[in-house]
Sequence to fold (122 residues):
Amino acid sequence: MRKYDHYKTVPNLPFEIGNKTRKPKSIAVVDTGNCTGCQVCIPFCPVDCIEVDDYQNGNSPINPVVIRYDECIGCSICARVCTKLTWDAIHMLPISEFEEQFPEVEINNTFTKEEEITEIII
Fold:
């Protein structure tokens, strides 16, 4: 009898942080009511666009993660990791649906890192 590898579909950690080079076909969205704040998705993001929400979610002691949408590349790694290792709190939305639901968020083809902005200002 062969052993079943439950982690086979869980991606490996990225070797280095990458940059966004094109507008993604889908964007990762966190269901904050379902997020446990475990932060297991954070080290798997290849562009480091997931962080802990510093603001308390009502009276809950759990701080869910948030995604900086303008930096998301739509790779779906965080959604797969969340589904396989913890809850199912992250899902992928096609870019057209995302733009309808979040009209205040502008998704560009590229982004400028904060370090680059600081260097330009200085």
The mean pLDDT is 80. Residues 77-85 form the longest helix (9 residues).
